[in-house]
Design goal:
The chain is an alpha/beta fold. The chain folds into 2 domains: 2-91 and 176-204, 3-Layer(aba) Sandwich (D-Maltodextrin-Binding Protein, domain 2), CATH 3.40.190; 93-174, D-Maltodextrin-Binding Protein, domain 2, CATH 3.40.190.10. Helices cover 33% and strands 29% of the residues. The protein has a 6-stranded mixed beta sheet with strand order 2-3-1-4-11-5. A 5-stranded mixed beta sheet has the order 8-7-9-6-10. Helix 5 links the parallel strand 7 and strand 8 (131-134). The radius of gyration is 19 Å and the shape is elongated. Heteromultimer composed of HisG and HisZ subunits. It catalyses: 1-(5-phospho-beta-D-ribosyl)-ATP + diphosphate = 5-phospho-alpha-D-ribose 1-diphosphate + ATP. InterPro entries: ATP_PRibTrfase_cat (IPR013820), ATP_PRibTrfase_CS (IPR018198), ATP_PRibTrfase_HisG (IPR001348), ATP_PRibTrfase_HisG_short (IPR024893). GO terms for molecular function: ATP binding; ATP phosphoribosyltransferase activity.
């Protein structure tokens, strides 16, 4: 049995049909009409559990899960010791710096973000001194209230930025969902993990497994 940590939310919705293309079927209603968090699928050889996206790499690093699926943004922020096996090419978006259009940059600007590690590294690599302020959510509010001049956040369509009078200033990196593995599990369960990765890889390329 492989234990797989899956992220709650939009990634999971796109993941279910990708697994189906890879030949792995499980009832999607289990994830939409139930508060249950752990699902055992002996016919597929899986135990699946749902976690917050930011927690998935932690479960994988500590071996509670053999595998996990999580966005590249979370991998960069969490910096956990895991193997990244496959780009699943779902839930595409980007990490970006945003702020008010035409605003004069401060000498030492404050940057609000849910990704402090990524933000600090990004500005340090560019020789820019900033003060990073961690926020749990609604980071678009920071420039509107004067808490920060800029934000670092996930951008998909840019609609949320536009609705709040903000613009994308700099693009940091592209983001998609990734398949990750626990380092010990990868050695002990290598055949099962590689089989899953290969089948999902074919599904990503558009090949449907029988």
């Amino acid at each position: 049995m492989l234990t797989i940590a899956l992220p709650k939310g939009r990634v999971l919705e796109e993941l279910i049909p990708l697994f189906a293309k890879g030949g792995y079927s499980f009832p999607s209603e289990w994830f939409t009409s139930s508060r249950k968090l752990v699902f055992t699928l002996p016919e597929q050889g899986f135990t699946l559990f749902l976690a917050k996206p930011m927690d998935v790499p932690t479960y994988v690093e500590y071996g509670v899960a053999d595998l996990g699926i999580v966005g590249k943004d979370v991998l960069l922020e969490a910096a956990r010791e895991v193997y990244e096996l496959l780009d699943l090419r779902i839930s595409p978006c980007r990490l970006a710096v945003a702020g008010k259009p035409g605003a004069e940059p401060a000498l030492y600007p404050r940057v609000a973000t849910k990704y402090p590690r990524i933000a600090e590294r990004y500005f340090k690599e560019r020789g820019q001194q900033v003060e990073v302020i961690f926020l749990n959510g609604s980071v678009e509010l920071a420039p509107l209230t004067g808490l920060a001049e800029r934000i670092v956040d996930i951008v998909s369509t840019g609609k949320t930025l536009r609705e709040n009078g903000l613009v994308e200033l700099e693009r940091i990196t592209e983001v998609t969902a990734r398949l990750i593995a626990n380092q010990v599990s990868y050695r002990l369960k290598r055949e099962a993990i590689q089989t899953l990765a290969e089948r999902l890889g074919k599904a990503v390329e558009g090949e449907v497994s029988a």
